[in-house]
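Input record (Table S2, row 291):
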Amino acid sequence: MKDYHKILEVSKTASLEEIKKAYKKLALKYHPDKNPNSEEKFKEINEAYEFLTKGNQTSKFHKEFRHETFYVIQHHLTLSFENIIHGFKKEIKLSFDKSCQECEGIGKIPDKANKCQFCKGTGKKYIPVNGFNFVTQCPSCSGTGSSRLNTCKACQGVGSFIVEDTFFADIPPGVSVPINAEFQSKNMKLRVICRISINNNSQYKIQDHNLVIKKKFNVFDFILGKTVSIETPYGKKEVVLDKNNINRIVIGNHGIPILQTPKKGDLIIECEHNVPEFNSEQLEKLKEFIK
Ligand SMILES: [Zn+2]
Ligand SMILES: [Zn+2]
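Output record (zinc ion complex):
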């Protein structure tokens, strides 16, 4: 799970403008033309930038230095309380637009007889950033220098195909805060970045690894040390009420699973007390007894 904000050295609440600014600064610093050892870092910065600036869509990253293309798909998943406690395992279908490689997603392919108007046939584009020139392919003709006048036969001019794939989301018990998890799709080996959010649809409050709930008890049951059956996320649990501890009942190892350990937090019951109604005869007896 990568922290893309950290990679771009911005805060989690950074605005789009701040992200763009940070990206330009870092892209300039780590551009492989300037610093041949920083290709990986440059790639990572680009990936973070794509992730943080593009919403729920397929992003295509062009690794210009090795001429490889790979895809990253974003998927959003909401975990219920049940999923937090027991984990989530499911094969999930993905359906997305994959841009046509033949025409680079434009729908038209270059016609060699016509020079590209944008780059005057050079196939290059210069982007000045802080006095340093990035040289990239002309996006209009994708470096061929020819005008795109012919309809692409592969995609019939649409520029993309609708593609389906699946991935197996396997989220262990204990994920109780929003995170990003990364999976690989089954057929196309896409990287699926799963944005996980939490919907605690239970009556429990989550406090770190502990679960907290309020419950009412008859105050006399504490005095008499009664055994009560308490509902927990892991089934019923018998508890002996303790007269020395009438405000809180702690059931250890019945809270949220702690990731990468066999342990769990606690289930904490905050007790509220019912005082039963007595008739006059009972009250008289009670008075006598307390004397
Ligand atoms: Zn095409
Ligand atoms: Zn061009």
